[in-house]
Design goal:
By secondary structure, the chain is α/β, with parallel strands linked by helices. It has two domains: 3-11 and 269-387, Aspartate Aminotransferase, domain 1 (Alpha-Beta Complex); 16-267, Aspartate Aminotransferase, domain 2 (3-Layer(aba) Sandwich). Helices cover 39% and strands 15% of the residues. It has eleven helices and 13 strands. The strands form three sheets. The protein has a seven-stranded mixed β-sheet with strand order 2-8-7-6-5-3-4, sandwiched between helices. Strands 9-10-13-12 form a four-stranded antiparallel β-sheet, covered by helices on one side. The chain has a two-stranded parallel sheet with strand order 1-11. Helix 4 links the parallel strand 3 and strand 4 (115-119). It is globular. The chain starts with a strand and ends with a helix.
Protein backbone atom coordinates (compact mmCIF):
# COMPACT_ATOMS: atom_id res chain seq x y z
CA UNK A 1 0.00 0.00 0.00
CA UNK A 2 1.30 3.43 -0.94
CA UNK A 3 1.52 5.94 1.90
CA UNK A 4 1.51 9.65 1.02
CA UNK A 5 3.15 11.79 3.72
CA UNK A 6 4.09 14.85 1.64
CA UNK A 7 1.07 17.02 2.41
CA UNK A 8 3.14 20.13 3.13
CA UNK A 9 4.13 20.14 -0.53
CA UNK A 10 0.61 19.38 -1.79
CA UNK A 11 -2.25 17.77 0.09
CA UNK A 12 -3.45 14.49 -1.41
CA UNK A 13 -5.89 13.00 -1.97
CA UNK A 14 -8.40 15.77 -2.49
CA UNK A 15 -11.86 15.53 -0.94
CA UNK A 16 -14.37 13.89 -3.31
CA UNK A 17 -16.47 17.07 -3.29
CA UNK A 18 -13.49 19.03 -4.67
CA UNK A 19 -13.05 16.57 -7.52
CA UNK A 20 -16.80 16.69 -8.21
CA UNK A 21 -16.88 20.50 -8.25
CA UNK A 22 -13.98 20.67 -10.71
CA UNK A 23 -15.58 18.04 -12.94
CA UNK A 24 -18.91 19.87 -12.83
CA UNK A 25 -17.30 23.12 -14.00
CA UNK A 26 -15.32 21.48 -16.79
CA UNK A 27 -18.28 19.39 -17.93
CA UNK A 28 -21.29 21.66 -17.53
CA UNK A 29 -20.44 25.38 -17.62
CA UNK A 30 -16.72 25.90 -18.30
CA UNK A 31 -16.82 29.49 -19.56
CA UNK A 32 -14.78 32.58 -18.70
CA UNK A 33 -16.19 34.72 -15.88
CA UNK A 34 -16.58 38.43 -16.46
CA UNK A 35 -15.94 38.19 -20.21
CA UNK A 36 -19.40 37.49 -21.64
CA UNK A 37 -23.06 37.89 -20.77
CA UNK A 38 -24.31 34.40 -21.52
CA UNK A 39 -25.57 31.84 -19.03
CA UNK A 40 -22.36 29.87 -18.59
CA UNK A 41 -20.21 32.98 -18.13
CA UNK A 42 -22.64 34.36 -15.55
CA UNK A 43 -22.63 31.09 -13.62
CA UNK A 44 -18.81 31.01 -13.65
CA UNK A 45 -18.71 34.63 -12.48
CA UNK A 46 -21.11 33.78 -9.66
CA UNK A 47 -18.82 30.97 -8.51
CA UNK A 48 -15.86 33.34 -8.50
CA UNK A 49 -17.80 35.97 -6.56
CA UNK A 50 -19.01 33.43 -3.99
CA UNK A 51 -15.45 32.16 -3.53
CA UNK A 52 -14.18 35.70 -2.88
CA UNK A 53 -16.93 36.10 -0.29
CA UNK A 54 -16.06 32.76 1.30
CA UNK A 55 -12.35 33.64 1.52
CA UNK A 56 -13.16 37.07 2.92
CA UNK A 57 -15.21 35.51 5.71
CA UNK A 58 -12.63 32.76 6.27
CA UNK A 59 -9.84 35.25 7.04
CA UNK A 60 -12.08 38.06 8.37
CA UNK A 61 -11.28 40.44 5.54
CA UNK A 62 -13.99 43.09 5.45
CA UNK A 63 -14.11 43.69 1.68
CA UNK A 64 -14.29 40.66 -0.61
CA UNK A 65 -13.32 42.82 -3.62
CA UNK A 66 -9.86 42.89 -2.08
CA UNK A 67 -9.45 39.15 -2.44
CA UNK A 68 -7.10 38.82 -5.42
CA UNK A 69 -6.56 35.46 -7.09
CA UNK A 70 -3.13 34.30 -8.21
CA UNK A 71 -1.45 31.10 -9.33
CA UNK A 72 -0.12 30.25 -5.85
CA UNK A 73 1.38 31.79 -2.72
CA UNK A 74 4.69 32.49 -4.48
CA UNK A 75 2.91 34.48 -7.18
CA UNK A 76 0.88 36.31 -4.52
CA UNK A 77 3.98 37.18 -2.50
CA UNK A 78 5.74 38.52 -5.60
CA UNK A 79 2.73 40.72 -6.37
CA UNK A 80 2.76 42.15 -2.85
CA UNK A 81 6.52 42.52 -2.40
CA UNK A 82 7.22 44.06 -5.81
CA UNK A 83 4.07 46.14 -5.68
CA UNK A 84 4.88 47.74 -2.33
CA UNK A 85 8.64 48.16 -2.04
CA UNK A 86 10.37 51.02 -3.84
CA UNK A 87 13.95 52.20 -4.17
CA UNK A 88 15.54 52.79 -0.77
CA UNK A 89 12.78 51.16 1.29
CA UNK A 90 13.66 48.99 4.27
CA UNK A 91 12.03 45.59 4.83
CA UNK A 92 12.25 43.19 7.78
CA UNK A 93 11.90 39.41 7.51
CA UNK A 94 12.65 36.39 9.71
CA UNK A 95 15.23 33.64 9.34
CA UNK A 96 12.43 31.14 8.69
CA UNK A 97 11.29 32.62 5.36
CA UNK A 98 10.72 30.58 2.23
CA UNK A 99 12.54 31.42 -1.02
CA UNK A 100 9.25 32.83 -2.30
CA UNK A 101 10.06 35.78 -0.01
CA UNK A 102 13.85 35.71 0.04
CA UNK A 103 14.38 35.59 -3.73
CA UNK A 104 12.09 38.52 -4.68
CA UNK A 105 13.83 40.56 -1.98
CA UNK A 106 17.25 39.56 -3.29
CA UNK A 107 16.12 40.76 -6.72
CA UNK A 108 14.97 44.09 -5.26
CA UNK A 109 18.20 44.50 -3.30
CA UNK A 110 20.01 44.48 -6.63
CA UNK A 111 17.50 46.31 -8.80
CA UNK A 112 16.06 48.86 -6.35
CA UNK A 113 18.69 49.01 -3.59
CA UNK A 114 16.18 48.13 -0.89
CA UNK A 115 17.53 47.52 2.61
CA UNK A 116 16.92 44.18 4.30
CA UNK A 117 17.05 43.11 7.94
CA UNK A 118 16.72 39.42 8.87
CA UNK A 119 15.58 38.65 12.41
CA UNK A 120 17.23 35.73 14.19
CA UNK A 121 15.32 32.60 15.16
CA UNK A 122 16.36 29.96 17.68
CA UNK A 123 16.95 26.24 17.13
CA UNK A 124 13.21 25.60 17.35
CA UNK A 125 12.51 28.33 14.78
CA UNK A 126 11.07 30.87 17.23
CA UNK A 127 11.53 34.53 16.37
CA UNK A 128 13.54 36.95 18.52
CA UNK A 129 10.79 39.49 19.24
CA UNK A 130 13.11 41.95 21.00
CA UNK A 131 15.41 42.03 17.99
CA UNK A 132 12.39 42.67 15.78
CA UNK A 133 11.33 45.64 17.92
CA UNK A 134 14.79 47.21 17.65
CA UNK A 135 15.15 46.69 13.88
CA UNK A 136 12.71 49.33 12.66
CA UNK A 137 14.13 52.34 10.83
CA UNK A 138 12.60 55.58 9.54
CA UNK A 139 12.44 54.03 6.05
CA UNK A 140 10.96 50.66 7.15
CA UNK A 141 8.09 50.00 4.76
CA UNK A 142 7.22 46.37 5.29
CA UNK A 143 7.57 43.44 7.69
CA UNK A 144 7.14 39.94 6.25
CA UNK A 145 6.70 36.81 8.32
CA UNK A 146 5.95 33.24 7.47
CA UNK A 147 3.08 32.01 9.64
CA UNK A 148 4.18 28.38 9.78
CA UNK A 149 7.58 27.05 8.73
CA UNK A 150 7.55 24.33 6.10
CA UNK A 151 10.98 23.25 7.35
CA UNK A 152 10.55 23.06 11.13
CA UNK A 153 6.80 23.23 11.68
CA UNK A 154 7.19 26.31 13.89
CA UNK A 155 4.12 28.54 14.13
CA UNK A 156 4.99 32.23 14.38
CA UNK A 157 3.22 34.65 16.79
CA UNK A 158 1.73 36.74 14.00
CA UNK A 159 -0.67 38.49 16.39
CA UNK A 160 2.24 39.85 18.42
CA UNK A 161 4.18 40.77 15.28
CA UNK A 162 1.12 42.46 13.83
CA UNK A 163 0.64 44.52 16.98
CA UNK A 164 4.26 45.71 16.79
CA UNK A 165 3.87 46.65 13.12
CA UNK A 166 0.66 48.54 13.87
CA UNK A 167 2.37 50.54 16.62
CA UNK A 168 5.15 51.44 14.19
CA UNK A 169 2.82 52.29 11.30
CA UNK A 170 4.48 49.66 9.09
CA UNK A 171 2.73 47.25 6.74
CA UNK A 172 2.60 43.59 7.76
CA UNK A 173 2.59 40.82 5.14
CA UNK A 174 1.95 37.23 6.25
CA UNK A 175 2.85 34.12 4.27
CA UNK A 176 0.07 31.68 5.23
CA UNK A 177 0.89 29.00 2.66
CA UNK A 178 1.28 26.32 5.35
CA UNK A 179 -1.23 27.51 7.95
CA UNK A 180 -4.41 28.50 6.13
CA UNK A 181 -6.85 25.71 6.98
CA UNK A 182 -4.91 24.50 10.03
CA UNK A 183 -4.51 27.60 12.22
CA UNK A 184 -7.37 30.13 12.52
CA UNK A 185 -6.42 33.47 10.96
CA UNK A 186 -8.21 36.75 11.73
CA UNK A 187 -6.81 39.64 9.70
CA UNK A 188 -8.54 42.27 11.83
CA UNK A 189 -7.64 40.88 15.24
CA UNK A 190 -4.07 40.01 14.26
CA UNK A 191 -3.42 43.32 12.46
CA UNK A 192 -2.52 41.67 9.16
CA UNK A 193 -2.39 44.13 6.28
CA UNK A 194 -1.75 41.60 3.51
CA UNK A 195 -2.16 37.83 3.58
CA UNK A 196 -0.76 35.48 0.95
CA UNK A 197 -2.26 31.99 0.73
CA UNK A 198 -2.34 28.99 -1.55
CA UNK A 199 -5.15 26.57 -2.24
CA UNK A 200 -3.41 23.24 -2.74
CA UNK A 201 -2.09 22.57 0.76
CA UNK A 202 -4.30 22.75 3.86
CA UNK A 203 -7.28 24.23 2.01
CA UNK A 204 -7.49 20.98 -0.02
CA UNK A 205 -7.99 22.70 -3.37
CA UNK A 206 -6.15 21.94 -6.62
CA UNK A 207 -2.71 23.24 -7.57
CA UNK A 208 -2.51 26.49 -9.51
CA UNK A 209 -4.73 28.68 -7.33
CA UNK A 210 -3.87 31.03 -4.48
CA UNK A 211 -4.20 34.69 -3.70
CA UNK A 212 -3.81 37.82 -1.65
CA UNK A 213 -6.18 39.28 0.92
CA UNK A 214 -5.56 43.02 1.17
CA UNK A 215 -6.57 44.77 4.39
CA UNK A 216 -4.94 48.14 3.79
CA UNK A 217 -5.44 51.34 1.82
CA UNK A 218 -1.77 51.33 0.86
CA UNK A 219 -1.38 50.99 -2.89
CA UNK A 220 0.04 47.81 -4.37
CA UNK A 221 1.36 48.53 -7.84
CA UNK A 222 0.23 46.31 -10.70
CA UNK A 223 2.74 43.59 -11.55
CA UNK A 224 1.15 42.28 -14.77
CA UNK A 225 -0.85 44.38 -17.23
CA UNK A 226 -3.42 43.06 -19.66
CA UNK A 227 -7.06 42.18 -20.15
CA UNK A 228 -9.42 42.16 -17.19
CA UNK A 229 -12.83 42.28 -18.83
CA UNK A 230 -13.30 45.78 -17.39
CA UNK A 231 -12.44 49.25 -18.73
CA UNK A 232 -11.44 47.72 -22.06
CA UNK A 233 -11.74 51.11 -23.75
CA UNK A 234 -8.70 52.58 -21.96
CA UNK A 235 -5.01 51.89 -22.58
CA UNK A 236 -4.02 51.80 -18.93
CA UNK A 237 -4.72 48.94 -16.56
CA UNK A 238 -7.70 49.41 -14.16
CA UNK A 239 -6.75 50.77 -10.74
CA UNK A 240 -9.52 49.19 -8.64
CA UNK A 241 -9.50 45.84 -6.84
CA UNK A 242 -9.46 43.03 -7.74
CA UNK A 243 -8.91 43.94 -11.41
CA UNK A 244 -5.75 45.99 -10.78
CA UNK A 245 -3.90 42.83 -9.68
CA UNK A 246 -5.67 40.26 -11.87
CA UNK A 247 -4.66 40.33 -15.55
CA UNK A 248 -5.94 37.75 -18.00
CA UNK A 249 -8.52 35.04 -17.51
CA UNK A 250 -8.31 33.73 -13.97
CA UNK A 251 -8.01 30.04 -13.15
CA UNK A 252 -11.76 29.49 -12.78
CA UNK A 253 -11.49 25.74 -12.43
CA UNK A 254 -9.00 26.32 -9.63
CA UNK A 255 -11.29 28.84 -7.95
CA UNK A 256 -14.18 26.37 -8.09
CA UNK A 257 -12.00 23.66 -6.56
CA UNK A 258 -10.71 26.06 -3.91
CA UNK A 259 -14.27 26.99 -2.93
CA UNK A 260 -15.12 23.35 -2.39
CA UNK A 261 -11.87 22.78 -0.48
CA UNK A 262 -12.59 25.63 1.93
CA UNK A 263 -16.11 24.32 2.42
CA UNK A 264 -14.59 20.94 3.28
CA UNK A 265 -12.35 22.56 5.90
CA UNK A 266 -15.27 24.52 7.33
CA UNK A 267 -17.37 21.38 7.43
CA UNK A 268 -14.76 19.51 9.47
CA UNK A 269 -13.87 22.59 11.51
CA UNK A 270 -10.34 24.02 11.80
CA UNK A 271 -10.19 23.23 15.53
CA UNK A 272 -11.14 19.61 14.83
CA UNK A 273 -8.60 19.34 12.01
CA UNK A 274 -5.91 20.82 14.25
CA UNK A 275 -6.75 18.39 17.04
CA UNK A 276 -6.72 15.35 14.76
CA UNK A 277 -3.52 16.22 12.94
CA UNK A 278 -1.73 17.23 16.14
CA UNK A 279 -2.59 13.81 17.58
CA UNK A 280 -1.11 12.12 14.49
CA UNK A 281 1.99 14.31 14.69
CA UNK A 282 2.51 13.44 18.34
CA UNK A 283 1.95 9.75 17.58
CA UNK A 284 4.74 9.93 15.00
CA UNK A 285 7.11 11.84 17.29
CA UNK A 286 6.51 9.42 20.16
CA UNK A 287 7.26 6.52 17.83
CA UNK A 288 10.57 7.81 16.47
CA UNK A 289 12.05 10.02 19.19
CA UNK A 290 14.05 7.20 20.81
CA UNK A 291 15.56 5.83 17.59
CA UNK A 292 19.32 5.93 18.03
CA UNK A 293 20.99 8.52 15.84
CA UNK A 294 17.72 10.24 14.89
CA UNK A 295 17.32 14.00 15.35
CA UNK A 296 13.94 15.79 15.28
CA UNK A 297 13.92 19.50 14.45
CA UNK A 298 11.47 22.24 15.36
CA UNK A 299 9.21 22.89 18.36
CA UNK A 300 9.66 20.81 21.48
CA UNK A 301 7.30 17.95 22.16
CA UNK A 302 3.96 19.15 23.47
CA UNK A 303 4.18 22.54 21.76
CA UNK A 304 1.81 23.33 18.91
CA UNK A 305 3.42 22.82 15.53
CA UNK A 306 2.30 22.30 11.98
CA UNK A 307 1.43 18.67 11.18
CA UNK A 308 4.93 17.99 9.91
CA UNK A 309 8.12 16.57 11.36
CA UNK A 310 11.59 17.21 9.94
CA UNK A 311 14.30 14.77 10.95
CA UNK A 312 17.67 13.26 10.09
CA UNK A 313 19.35 9.96 10.87
CA UNK A 314 23.05 9.97 11.64
CA UNK A 315 25.40 8.81 8.85
CA UNK A 316 22.73 8.71 6.14
CA UNK A 317 21.64 11.60 3.94
CA UNK A 318 18.10 12.90 3.85
CA UNK A 319 17.81 12.02 0.16
CA UNK A 320 18.93 8.44 0.85
CA UNK A 321 16.29 8.06 3.55
CA UNK A 322 13.57 9.42 1.27
CA UNK A 323 14.64 7.09 -1.53
CA UNK A 324 14.62 4.05 0.76
CA UNK A 325 11.18 4.98 2.09
CA UNK A 326 9.82 5.34 -1.43
CA UNK A 327 11.42 2.31 -3.06
CA UNK A 328 11.32 -0.19 -0.20
CA UNK A 329 8.26 0.87 1.78
CA UNK A 330 6.02 2.85 -0.60
CA UNK A 331 6.17 5.86 1.73
CA UNK A 332 6.35 9.23 -0.01
CA UNK A 333 8.05 12.13 1.80
CA UNK A 334 10.23 15.09 0.88
CA UNK A 335 13.96 15.46 1.46
CA UNK A 336 16.31 18.43 1.15
CA UNK A 337 16.10 22.13 1.99
CA UNK A 338 12.39 22.52 1.13
CA UNK A 339 13.10 25.88 -0.57
CA UNK A 340 13.89 27.34 2.88
CA UNK A 341 17.68 27.53 3.33
CA UNK A 342 17.45 30.34 5.89
CA UNK A 343 15.24 28.19 8.09
CA UNK A 344 17.66 25.27 7.96
CA UNK A 345 20.50 27.58 8.98
CA UNK A 346 18.47 28.54 12.05
CA UNK A 347 17.51 25.04 13.14
CA UNK A 348 20.95 23.53 12.44
CA UNK A 349 20.18 21.34 9.43
CA UNK A 350 22.01 23.30 6.71
CA UNK A 351 23.31 22.33 4.18
CA UNK A 352 22.04 18.75 4.25
CA UNK A 353 18.40 19.64 4.89
CA UNK A 354 15.99 17.16 6.42
CA UNK A 355 13.54 14.40 5.68
CA UNK A 356 10.05 15.86 6.12
CA UNK A 357 6.97 13.82 7.03
CA UNK A 358 3.79 15.87 6.68
CA UNK A 359 0.28 14.76 7.49
CA UNK A 360 -3.15 15.67 6.16
CA UNK A 361 -6.82 14.97 6.75
CA UNK A 362 -6.58 11.65 4.91
CA UNK A 363 -3.57 10.39 6.88
CA UNK A 364 -4.41 7.46 9.16
CA UNK A 365 -2.87 6.01 12.30
CA UNK A 366 -1.77 3.05 10.21
CA UNK A 367 0.07 5.31 7.77
CA UNK A 368 1.97 6.88 10.68
CA UNK A 369 2.78 3.49 12.22
CA UNK A 370 4.12 2.23 8.89
CA UNK A 371 6.43 5.23 8.71
CA UNK A 372 7.66 4.64 12.27
CA UNK A 373 8.42 0.99 11.51
CA UNK A 374 10.25 1.91 8.31
CA UNK A 375 12.44 4.49 10.06
CA UNK A 376 13.36 2.00 12.78
CA UNK A 377 14.42 -0.53 10.15
CA UNK A 378 16.38 2.03 8.12
CA UNK A 379 18.22 3.26 11.22
CA UNK A 380 19.01 -0.30 12.33
CA UNK A 381 20.27 -1.30 8.90
CA UNK A 382 22.43 1.81 8.74
CA UNK A 383 24.06 0.86 12.05
CA UNK A 384 24.74 -2.63 10.68
CA UNK A 385 26.39 -1.10 7.61
CA UNK A 386 28.57 1.07 9.87
CA UNK A 387 29.72 -2.02 11.76
CA UNK A 388 30.53 -3.83 8.55
Amino acid sequence: MKVYLDNSATSWPKPPAVVAAISDYLTNYGASPGRSGHEFSIKAAREVFETRELISDFFNLQNSEQVVFSANATHALNIAIKGILKKGDHVIITHMEHNSVRRPLSFLQTSESIELSIIDCDLQGNINIEQLKSSFKPNTKLVISIHGSNASGTIMPIGAIGEICKSKGVLFLVDAAQTAGFVPIDMQQQNIDILAFTGHKKLYGPPGIGGLCINTKAKIETLIHGGTGSKSEIDSHPEFYPDCLEAGTINTVGVVGLKSGIQYVLGKGIESIQTDLTRLTNLFIDGVKNIEGLTIYGPKQGELRLPLVSLNIENITSSQIATLLDKNYGIMVRAGLHCSPLAHKSIGSFPQGTVRFSFGCFTTDNHVKQAITALKEIAANEKLRDKN
